Amino acid sequence: MPTNVMEWGFVLIFFILPGSIGAYVAYTKGRNPFLWLLLNGLFAPTVMITLFQRPLRPVQGHYRQCPKCSEFSKWRETSCRFCGTGLS
Ligand SMILES: [Zn+2]
Fold first, then answer.
1. Ligand 1 centre and the CA of 74: distance in Å?
2. What is the per-residue pLDDT across 1-51, written as a single tens digit (0 to 9) for each?
3. Cα 36 vs. chain centroid, distance in angstroms?
4. What's the rounded Cα separation, in Å, for the pair 55 and 46?
5. Among positive and negative, which fits the CA dihedral 51, 35, 32, 9?
6. CA-CA-CA-CA torsion for 63, 65, 70, 71, nearest 10 degrees?
């Protein structure tokens, strides 16, 4: 266990921070936040995988799925960025 402030800072930056970011991003992409919390927390570079992977399903407030080409677009976008179909 960490014994002083420096060690806690180290743990925070290299494990807790990437773990939390990974868990949140995974959640917004419809993936398992606990799995990615563990993975990103144990090995921080895997946060890059979490950030760049495609959403698994549409998530309210984060991603919409195009009804025509089934690609995902950001929630705030009004038309599909792949085929231009209007999203609602
Ligand atoms: Zn589309």
1. 12
2. 778 999 999 999 999 999 999 999 999 999 999 999 999 999 999 999 999
3. 9
4. 16
5. negative
6. -30
Asked if 80 and 87 touch (Cβ cutoff 8 Å), the reply is yes
- The Å distance, Cα 81 to ligand 1 centre, comes to 7
Distance (Å) from CA 66 to ligand 1 centroid = 5
Q: Which residues contact 74 (CB under 8 A, 6 or more apart)?
A: 62, 63, 64
Contact status, residue 69 vs residue 80, Cβ threshold 8 Å: yes
Query: Model-level pTM?
Result: 0.85
Kindly list the distances between the CA atom of residue 65 and the CA atoms of 21, 52, 74, in Å, as whole numbers in the listed order.
Answer: 23, 17, 9
Nearest to 58, CA basis, from 38, 20, 87, 21: 87
Q: What's the gap in Å between 30 CA and the centre of ligand 1?
A: 19
Cα 14 to ligand 1 centre (Å) = 38
